[in-house]
Design brief:
3-stranded mixed β-sheet
């Protein structure tokens, strides 16, 4: 089995790969007219420190400093890393495209564990950064004329890239209260638009963070944290409650669905068992109170279930539910057969 740790700078595999890349480029420059017509071909292999996307960004920045640079130059990145989108926005180049393979996410439930598989297809996706920049204008143009400073979409994009770091990337973990799967990016955008109206300038300028202004965003994020944790706690409690308690009404209701047509016999039978379940809860709560054996947690759960029954939500443990449904089904079938025999 191939060890993926071998694909790293300094390994024998990477040295051979770099040699093959240089050989391939020399071969194409000597034999392929398309390569011969290119102005320049650059290979930055594993011997040169740095990530590939950052090397490309450094090259673009150096090119922009030259007096002969054409501002309408078109750039194309190839890669599936989401950081490429941020890096492309950071260049403020008007013509930028990212090409990437289409990824399909498949979720499978196996043995109580949800498995997420990410697979590639033969399709490619094109991300036009120029179109994304237009969406930024649509999102933030409502602030034009309402700010203390001049409305500048380039500065807004820089601030957007800054607060996206709070969600995390390849090098930094996300803030615990922010999860992109929970819509935290939309929340960050709304909070930023809210505080921007009261600031005298943008948070970042030419790559430098003004921490006094950034503190305002961090402060409102702190207030948002409490709300997120409460929502997560309520959601977890709701899931545990649904797993722990099974509803008998859900299984019995189909049996009495036609009660209004066939008379009140079925409905009366249903109410009879419902009352028995209700009384059983009453007896159990009274028994726990009389014992006083310190089972406070169990007592709390049963009392809570009893209150739910009072709201006409009949919920019982699974074993009792199955037994009651079986008895009810037999009684229902007997009553039905009697009616048919009379006819």
């Amino acid at each position: 089995m191939f060890d993926t740790n071998a694909i790293s700078p300094g390994t024998e595999f990477m040295v051979n790969l770099c040699n093959q890349l240089h050989f391939f480029l020399k071969y194409k420059l000597n034999t392929d007219p398309l390569y011969q017509n290119l102005r320049e071909c650059i290979i930055s292999d594993g011997h040169v420190p740095g990530e590939g996307e950052h090397k490309m960004l450094d090259y673009i920045r150096k090119e922009r400093t030259k007096p002969t640079y054409d501002p309408n130059t078109r750039h194309c990145f190839y890669g599936a890393d989401a950081d490429l989108i941020m890096l492309s926005l950071l260049t403020h180049e008007p013509h930028f495209t990212i090409i990437r393979e289409e990824h399909v996410v498949k979720k499978q439930q196996a043995g109580g564990v949800q498995r997420v598989e990410l697979s590639m297809t033969n399709q490619f996706q094109l991300i036009h950064i120029s179109l994304l920049r237009e969406y930024f204008v649509l999102e933030y143009r409502e602030l034009a004329g309402k700010l203390r400073m001049r409305w500048d979409i380039e500065r807004i994009i820089d601030d957007f890239i800054f607060f996206c770091f709070f969600i995390g990337n390849d090098f930094l973990p996300n803030i615990s209260a922010l999860d992109i799967g929970e819509g935290s990016l939309d929340k960050l955008i709304d909070l930023y638009k809210l505080i921007l109206r009261n600031m005298d300038d943008y948070i970042t300028h030419q790559g430098v963070i003004n921490w006094q202004r950034a503190e305002q965003l961090i402060w409102v994020l702190g207030e948002h944290e409490d709300e997120v944790y409460r929502d997560r706690l309520d959601s977890a409690k709701s899931e545990r409650r649904q797993e722990r308690i099974v509803s008998v009404t859900q299984d019995i209701n189909p049996l009495v669905a036609s009660a209004s047509v066939r008379g009140n016999r079925d409905l009366q039978t249903f109410n009879f068992f419902k009352e028995k379940i209700y009384q059983k809860k009453v007896d159990k709560v009274a028994k726990l109170k009389a014992k006083g054996d310190g089972k406070k947690y169990k007592k709390f759960l049963i009392t809570k279930m009893f209150k739910e029954d009072a709201e006409h939500k009949v919920k019982i443990p699974k074993e009792i539910k199955n037994a009651l449904v079986e008895k009810f089904s037999a009684l229902h079938n007997k009553a039905t057969s009697n009616e048919e025999s009379k006819v």
